């Protein structure tokens, strides 16, 4: 069999590659000769993936609950993959930055639109039974979501809104002590930290602080302002960052609020979340007013942040029930 010029050229390139690394190309060709063809199920470890659902009860809808949260964490991993590409790019361009934020927005769009699976995809009676076997675990404990927040904005923007001015020049460690989500995991009766929060802090606090330090000058907010200060046209980037702000700080919390109202609100007494948290004041965007990029919004827009959504959601869900 005669080799075509294209085959010969590729063999020469391979020879150069392996020679430069001090490797024997023939040995690698032997490996290729004996290797099996790759299959789809082996490549994505499908059998392993489908074996990762381990319900704690025999209640059918618990498996839906597990799978959806696993899907969520995979989307978060996709987001963090893009965050890392942006922050660690050796020669970051505004086009690359914008394109990667656009990818993250696509992931969050998929997340928020698919959350109806959680709102309407389980029987309320089943959920209220199996949820008791999950204590004190909670979706609150998603470390990847907190990492996305840290990558997206200056760390001071994640401090509880009542402490931001006071701690604007404080150390990251001091700011972390007052990060907003710690106030969303307090016991309703005593105001003390829940076990859910204590577990979360023990596992992730050092990782969060290190990431915050690493992203001091390479979080999205800092990078945007660097490009703007250097005279770049930031119009398209600003548009994508505004979308990200709304997805992460309004649409995503609201999706959870819809689910919490659907499954946990009872008249006249609300059911506590699995972590015992004060979800009624923690989840609604209008209460927290987390805004990554205040310089991209008008004062009026920030004043109305998250308003209207919650009331309309409550009315819709109550009508369904």
TrEMBL record:
<protein>
    <submittedName>
        <fullName>Tryptophan 2,3-dioxygenase family protein</fullName>
    </submittedName>
</protein>
<dbReference type="Pfam" id="PF03301">
    <property type="entry name" value="Trp_dioxygenase"/>
</dbReference>
<dbReference type="InterPro" id="IPR037217">
    <property type="entry name" value="Trp/Indoleamine_2_3_dOase-like"/>
</dbReference>
<dbReference type="InterPro" id="IPR004981">
    <property type="entry name" value="Trp_2_3_dOase"/>
</dbReference>
């Amino acid at each position: 069999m005669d080799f075509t010029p294209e085959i010969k050229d590729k063999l020469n390139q391979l020879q150069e590659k392996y020679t430069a690394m001090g490797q024997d190309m023939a040995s690698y060709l032997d490996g290729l000769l004996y290797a099996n063809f790759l299959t789809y199920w082996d490549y994505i470890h499908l059998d392993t993936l489908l074996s990762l659902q381990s319900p704690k009860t025999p209640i059918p809808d618990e498996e839906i609950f597990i799978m959806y949260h696993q899907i969520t964490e995979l989307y978060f991993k996709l987001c963090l993959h893009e965050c890392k590409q942006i922050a660690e790019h050796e020669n970051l361009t505004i086009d690359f930055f914008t394109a990667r934020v656009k990818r993250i927005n696509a992931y969050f769009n998929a997340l928020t639109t698919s959350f109806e699976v959680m709102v309407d995809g389980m029987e309320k009676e089943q959920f209220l039974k199996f949820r008791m076997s999950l204590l004190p675990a909670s979706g609150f404990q998603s470390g990847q979501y907190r990492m996305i927040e840290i990558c997206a904005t200056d760390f001071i923007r994640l401090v509880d809104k009542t402490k931001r001015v006071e701690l604007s020049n404080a150390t990251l460690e001091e700011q972390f002590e007052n990060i907003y989500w710690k106030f969303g995991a307090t016991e309703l009766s005593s105001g003390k930290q829940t076990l859910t929060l204590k577990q979360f802090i023990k596992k992730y606090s050092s990782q969060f602080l290190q990431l915050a330090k690493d992203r001091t000058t390479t979080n999205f907010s800092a990078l945007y302002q660097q490009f703007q200060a250097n005279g770049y046209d930031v119009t398209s980037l600003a548009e994508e960052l505004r979308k990200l702000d709304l997805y992460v700080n309004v649409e995503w919390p609201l999706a959870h609020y819809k689910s919490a109202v659907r499954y946990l609100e009872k008249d006249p007494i609300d059911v506590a979340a699995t972590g015992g948290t004060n979800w009624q004041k923690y989840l609604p965007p209008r209460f927290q007013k987390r805004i990554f990029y205040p310089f991209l919004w008008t004062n009026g827009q920030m004043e109305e942040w998250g308003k209207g959504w919650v009331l309309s959601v409550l009315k819709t869900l109550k009508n369904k029930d």
